[in-house]
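Reopening this one. Same input as before:
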Amino acid sequence: MSRNLKVAVLDNLISGDLANIQQWLQNRRFTFAQHDLLNFNDVAKLTKGCDTVLHLAANPDVRLSTINPEVHYKQNVLATFNLLEAMRKVGTVKALVFASSSTVYGEASKVPTPEDYAPLEPISVYGASKLSCEALITGYAHTYGFKAIICRLANIIGARSTHGVVYDFVEKIRKNPKELEVLGDGTQTKSYLFVDDCIEGISVALRESQEQVDIFNIGSEDQIDVKTIASTVVEEMGLKNVRLRFTGAVDGGRGWVGDVKSMLLETSKLKSRGWTPKYDSEQSIKLTVRGLLSEGL
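Same output, byte for byte:
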Protein backbone atom coordinates (compact mmCIF):
# COMPACT_ATOMS: atom_id res chain seq x y z
CA MET A 1 0.00 0.00 0.00
CA SER A 2 2.92 2.36 0.66
CA ARG A 3 3.73 2.09 -3.07
CA ASN A 4 0.28 3.44 -3.97
CA LEU A 5 -0.75 0.19 -5.65
CA LYS A 6 -4.24 -1.07 -6.28
CA VAL A 7 -4.60 -4.52 -4.73
CA ALA A 8 -7.32 -7.10 -5.35
CA VAL A 9 -7.49 -10.28 -3.25
CA LEU A 10 -9.41 -13.43 -4.08
CA ASP A 11 -9.80 -16.03 -1.30
CA ASN A 12 -12.41 -18.68 -0.58
CA LEU A 13 -11.60 -18.36 3.16
CA ILE A 14 -11.62 -22.14 3.67
CA SER A 15 -8.41 -21.82 5.65
CA GLY A 16 -8.11 -18.03 5.75
CA ASP A 17 -9.65 -15.46 8.04
CA LEU A 18 -11.06 -12.09 7.02
CA ALA A 19 -9.74 -10.67 10.29
CA ASN A 20 -6.22 -10.97 8.86
CA ILE A 21 -6.93 -8.21 6.33
CA GLN A 22 -9.47 -6.23 8.33
CA GLN A 23 -7.26 -3.14 8.37
CA TRP A 24 -7.39 -2.89 4.57
CA LEU A 25 -11.07 -3.51 3.90
CA GLN A 26 -12.03 0.17 3.95
CA ASN A 27 -9.07 1.28 1.84
CA ARG A 28 -10.27 2.56 -1.53
CA ARG A 29 -7.28 0.96 -3.28
CA PHE A 30 -8.05 -2.49 -1.88
CA THR A 31 -10.65 -4.97 -3.17
CA PHE A 32 -11.56 -8.29 -1.56
CA ALA A 33 -13.66 -10.99 -3.22
CA GLN A 34 -14.67 -14.22 -1.48
CA HIS A 35 -14.52 -16.50 -4.48
CA ASP A 36 -12.87 -19.77 -5.47
CA LEU A 37 -10.32 -20.36 -8.22
CA LEU A 38 -12.45 -23.32 -9.30
CA ASN A 39 -15.09 -20.83 -10.48
CA PHE A 40 -13.62 -19.53 -13.75
CA ASN A 41 -16.01 -16.58 -14.20
CA ASP A 42 -15.19 -15.16 -10.77
CA VAL A 43 -11.46 -15.52 -11.42
CA ALA A 44 -11.66 -13.81 -14.81
CA LYS A 45 -13.70 -10.94 -13.39
CA LEU A 46 -11.14 -10.15 -10.68
CA THR A 47 -8.12 -10.71 -12.94
CA LYS A 48 -9.30 -8.21 -15.54
CA GLY A 49 -7.10 -5.12 -15.47
CA CYS A 50 -4.41 -6.66 -13.23
CA ASP A 51 -0.80 -6.47 -14.42
CA THR A 52 0.76 -8.68 -11.72
CA VAL A 53 -0.71 -11.80 -10.12
CA LEU A 54 0.61 -13.48 -6.98
CA HIS A 55 -0.74 -17.02 -6.98
CA LEU A 56 -0.49 -18.26 -3.39
CA ALA A 57 -3.65 -20.38 -3.35
CA ALA A 58 -3.42 -24.16 -2.82
CA ASN A 59 -4.32 -26.96 -0.49
CA PRO A 60 -1.00 -27.33 1.36
CA ASP A 61 -1.75 -30.49 3.38
CA VAL A 62 0.80 -33.00 2.04
CA ARG A 63 -0.63 -35.86 4.12
CA LEU A 64 -4.10 -35.36 2.65
CA SER A 65 -2.93 -36.52 -0.78
CA THR A 66 -2.47 -40.08 0.49
CA ILE A 67 -6.15 -40.17 1.46
CA ASN A 68 -7.84 -38.01 -1.17
CA PRO A 69 -5.55 -37.12 -4.10
CA GLU A 70 -8.46 -35.55 -6.00
CA VAL A 71 -8.33 -32.59 -3.61
CA HIS A 72 -4.81 -31.70 -4.72
CA TYR A 73 -5.70 -32.13 -8.36
CA LYS A 74 -8.68 -29.79 -8.10
CA GLN A 75 -7.40 -27.22 -5.61
CA ASN A 76 -3.86 -27.06 -6.96
CA VAL A 77 -3.73 -28.12 -10.62
CA LEU A 78 -7.23 -27.27 -11.86
CA ALA A 79 -7.28 -24.02 -9.86
CA THR A 80 -3.98 -23.00 -11.46
CA PHE A 81 -5.27 -23.88 -14.93
CA ASN A 82 -8.35 -21.70 -14.36
CA LEU A 83 -6.17 -18.78 -13.30
CA LEU A 84 -3.91 -19.16 -16.33
CA GLU A 85 -6.92 -19.31 -18.63
CA ALA A 86 -8.32 -16.16 -17.03
CA MET A 87 -4.97 -14.43 -17.52
CA ARG A 88 -4.88 -15.52 -21.15
CA LYS A 89 -8.37 -14.23 -21.88
CA VAL A 90 -8.14 -10.88 -20.09
CA GLY A 91 -4.71 -10.26 -21.61
CA THR A 92 -3.49 -7.59 -19.16
CA VAL A 93 -1.23 -9.64 -16.84
CA LYS A 94 2.48 -9.07 -17.39
CA ALA A 95 3.88 -11.15 -14.50
CA LEU A 96 2.79 -14.14 -12.43
CA VAL A 97 4.41 -15.16 -9.15
CA PHE A 98 3.69 -18.76 -8.14
CA ALA A 99 4.22 -20.24 -4.68
CA SER A 100 5.62 -23.68 -5.45
CA SER A 101 7.21 -26.09 -3.00
CA SER A 102 10.43 -27.85 -2.07
CA THR A 103 8.45 -31.10 -2.48
CA VAL A 104 8.92 -30.92 -6.27
CA TYR A 105 12.51 -32.13 -5.69
CA GLY A 106 11.39 -35.33 -3.95
CA GLU A 107 14.27 -37.17 -2.23
CA ALA A 108 17.06 -35.05 -3.69
CA SER A 109 20.49 -36.65 -3.73
CA LYS A 110 22.10 -33.21 -3.52
CA VAL A 111 21.49 -31.22 -0.33
CA PRO A 112 21.37 -28.21 -0.24
CA THR A 113 19.33 -28.58 -3.42
CA PRO A 114 19.76 -25.95 -6.19
CA GLU A 115 17.08 -24.78 -8.61
CA ASP A 116 18.67 -26.66 -11.54
CA TYR A 117 18.61 -30.02 -9.75
CA ALA A 118 17.30 -32.93 -11.82
CA PRO A 119 15.48 -35.17 -12.19
CA LEU A 120 12.50 -33.66 -10.39
CA GLU A 121 10.79 -36.70 -8.87
CA PRO A 122 8.14 -35.85 -6.23
CA ILE A 123 7.28 -38.61 -3.75
CA SER A 124 3.85 -37.22 -2.83
CA VAL A 125 0.77 -36.34 -4.86
CA TYR A 126 1.03 -32.85 -3.37
CA GLY A 127 4.56 -32.46 -4.75
CA ALA A 128 3.38 -33.83 -8.10
CA SER A 129 0.52 -31.29 -8.17
CA LYS A 130 2.95 -28.44 -7.57
CA LEU A 131 5.28 -29.67 -10.30
CA SER A 132 2.27 -29.96 -12.63
CA CYS A 133 1.42 -26.33 -11.89
CA GLU A 134 5.00 -25.29 -12.65
CA ALA A 135 4.81 -27.03 -16.04
CA LEU A 136 1.49 -25.37 -16.91
CA ILE A 137 2.78 -21.95 -15.88
CA THR A 138 5.99 -22.39 -17.88
CA GLY A 139 4.08 -23.38 -20.99
CA TYR A 140 1.58 -20.53 -20.69
CA ALA A 141 4.31 -17.96 -20.01
CA HIS A 142 6.24 -18.88 -23.15
CA THR A 143 3.12 -19.22 -25.28
CA TYR A 144 1.28 -16.09 -24.20
CA GLY A 145 4.20 -13.82 -23.40
CA PHE A 146 4.00 -13.03 -19.70
CA LYS A 147 6.75 -13.35 -17.11
CA ALA A 148 6.61 -16.21 -14.59
CA ILE A 149 8.46 -16.23 -11.27
CA ILE A 150 8.30 -19.64 -9.59
CA CYS A 151 9.22 -19.62 -5.89
CA ARG A 152 10.03 -23.04 -4.45
CA LEU A 153 9.38 -22.59 -0.76
CA ALA A 154 10.71 -24.40 2.29
CA ASN A 155 8.34 -24.90 5.25
CA ILE A 156 6.87 -21.44 5.82
CA ILE A 157 5.65 -20.79 9.37
CA GLY A 158 4.25 -17.90 11.39
CA ALA A 159 1.64 -16.80 13.90
CA ARG A 160 -1.23 -17.39 11.48
CA SER A 161 -0.21 -20.94 10.59
CA THR A 162 -3.19 -23.30 10.32
CA HIS A 163 -1.31 -26.53 9.63
CA GLY A 164 2.18 -28.01 9.85
CA VAL A 165 4.36 -29.52 12.54
CA VAL A 166 4.68 -26.44 14.79
CA TYR A 167 0.94 -25.71 14.71
CA ASP A 168 0.17 -29.39 15.34
CA PHE A 169 2.57 -29.60 18.29
CA VAL A 170 1.12 -26.51 20.00
CA GLU A 171 -2.40 -27.83 19.52
CA LYS A 172 -1.53 -31.31 20.81
CA ILE A 173 0.26 -29.99 23.91
CA ARG A 174 -2.66 -27.73 24.76
CA LYS A 175 -4.92 -30.78 24.73
CA ASN A 176 -2.47 -32.96 26.66
CA PRO A 177 0.44 -31.15 28.37
CA LYS A 178 1.90 -34.43 29.66
CA GLU A 179 2.55 -36.19 26.35
CA LEU A 180 3.33 -35.08 22.80
CA GLU A 181 2.79 -37.41 19.86
CA VAL A 182 5.51 -37.01 17.22
CA LEU A 183 4.85 -38.51 13.79
CA GLY A 184 7.79 -40.59 12.54
CA ASP A 185 11.00 -41.22 14.47
CA GLY A 186 11.89 -37.56 15.04
CA THR A 187 14.95 -37.57 12.77
CA GLN A 188 13.19 -35.92 9.82
CA THR A 189 15.33 -32.85 9.14
CA LYS A 190 14.10 -29.84 7.19
CA SER A 191 14.32 -26.10 6.67
CA TYR A 192 11.81 -23.73 8.30
CA LEU A 193 11.42 -20.10 7.27
CA PHE A 194 9.56 -17.34 9.10
CA VAL A 195 6.78 -15.80 7.03
CA ASP A 196 8.29 -12.29 7.10
CA ASP A 197 11.45 -13.62 5.45
CA CYS A 198 9.32 -15.45 2.89
CA ILE A 199 7.38 -12.31 1.94
CA GLU A 200 10.62 -10.37 1.51
CA GLY A 201 12.06 -13.20 -0.58
CA ILE A 202 9.06 -13.25 -2.90
CA SER A 203 9.24 -9.46 -3.27
CA VAL A 204 12.93 -9.60 -4.20
CA ALA A 205 12.30 -12.46 -6.66
CA LEU A 206 9.57 -10.44 -8.39
CA ARG A 207 11.65 -7.28 -8.51
CA GLU A 208 14.96 -8.87 -9.53
CA SER A 209 13.91 -11.70 -11.86
CA GLN A 210 15.65 -11.55 -15.23
CA GLU A 211 14.25 -14.45 -17.26
CA GLN A 212 10.84 -15.02 -18.84
CA VAL A 213 10.54 -18.01 -16.51
CA ASP A 214 12.68 -17.62 -13.40
CA ILE A 215 12.85 -20.14 -10.55
CA PHE A 216 14.00 -19.25 -7.03
CA ASN A 217 14.41 -21.36 -3.91
CA ILE A 218 13.30 -19.55 -0.75
CA GLY A 219 14.23 -21.08 2.59
CA SER A 220 16.40 -20.76 5.66
CA GLU A 221 20.12 -21.52 5.55
CA ASP A 222 19.93 -24.40 8.01
CA GLN A 223 17.94 -27.50 8.99
CA ILE A 224 16.33 -28.69 12.20
CA ASP A 225 15.03 -32.14 13.11
CA VAL A 226 11.53 -32.87 14.35
CA LYS A 227 12.69 -34.03 17.79
CA THR A 228 14.40 -30.66 18.33
CA ILE A 229 11.27 -28.87 17.11
CA ALA A 230 9.21 -30.78 19.68
CA SER A 231 11.61 -29.87 22.50
CA THR A 232 11.68 -26.23 21.38
CA VAL A 233 7.87 -26.01 21.35
CA VAL A 234 7.68 -27.57 24.82
CA GLU A 235 10.25 -25.09 26.14
CA GLU A 236 8.54 -22.08 24.56
CA MET A 237 5.25 -23.15 26.15
CA GLY A 238 6.92 -23.14 29.56
CA LEU A 239 6.43 -26.85 30.23
CA LYS A 240 8.67 -29.57 31.64
CA ASN A 241 8.59 -33.35 31.76
CA VAL A 242 6.51 -33.66 28.61
CA ARG A 243 6.96 -37.18 27.27
CA LEU A 244 7.65 -37.41 23.54
CA ARG A 245 5.90 -40.38 21.96
CA PHE A 246 7.23 -41.23 18.50
CA THR A 247 4.94 -43.10 16.11
CA GLY A 248 8.02 -44.41 14.36
CA ALA A 249 7.55 -46.91 11.65
CA VAL A 250 6.47 -45.30 8.36
CA ASP A 251 9.00 -46.09 5.62
CA GLY A 252 12.24 -45.52 7.50
CA GLY A 253 10.96 -43.17 10.19
CA ARG A 254 8.96 -40.73 8.06
CA GLY A 255 5.93 -38.99 9.49
CA TRP A 256 3.66 -40.29 6.71
CA VAL A 257 3.85 -41.77 3.23
CA GLY A 258 5.31 -39.08 0.96
CA ASP A 259 7.10 -37.24 3.78
CA VAL A 260 10.53 -36.09 2.55
CA LYS A 261 13.04 -37.14 5.22
CA SER A 262 15.63 -34.40 4.63
CA MET A 263 15.22 -31.04 2.92
CA LEU A 264 17.45 -27.99 2.62
CA LEU A 265 17.28 -25.59 -0.30
CA GLU A 266 20.25 -23.89 -1.93
CA THR A 267 19.32 -20.19 -1.84
CA SER A 268 22.46 -18.53 -3.28
CA LYS A 269 20.60 -17.45 -6.43
CA LEU A 270 18.12 -15.28 -4.53
CA LYS A 271 20.80 -14.12 -2.10
CA SER A 272 22.82 -12.87 -5.07
CA ARG A 273 19.86 -10.59 -5.86
CA GLY A 274 19.98 -8.98 -2.40
CA TRP A 275 17.88 -11.24 -0.14
CA THR A 276 19.05 -12.82 3.12
CA PRO A 277 16.76 -14.42 5.72
CA LYS A 278 16.80 -12.71 9.11
CA TYR A 279 15.95 -15.85 11.08
CA ASP A 280 17.26 -19.40 11.12
CA SER A 281 14.97 -22.43 11.53
CA GLU A 282 15.05 -22.49 15.33
CA GLN A 283 14.41 -18.76 15.64
CA SER A 284 11.52 -19.08 13.16
CA ILE A 285 9.99 -21.87 15.23
CA LYS A 286 10.28 -19.90 18.46
CA LEU A 287 8.70 -16.81 16.88
CA THR A 288 5.90 -18.96 15.49
CA VAL A 289 5.10 -20.61 18.82
CA ARG A 290 5.02 -17.23 20.57
CA GLY A 291 2.78 -15.88 17.83
CA LEU A 292 0.40 -18.86 17.95
CA LEU A 293 0.09 -18.51 21.72
CA SER A 294 -0.58 -14.77 21.48
CA GLU A 295 -3.16 -15.39 18.72
CA GLY A 296 -4.93 -17.76 21.11
CA LEU A 297 -4.59 -21.04 19.21
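So the earlier flakiness isn't reproducible anymore. For the record, The first strand starts at residue 7 and ends at 10.
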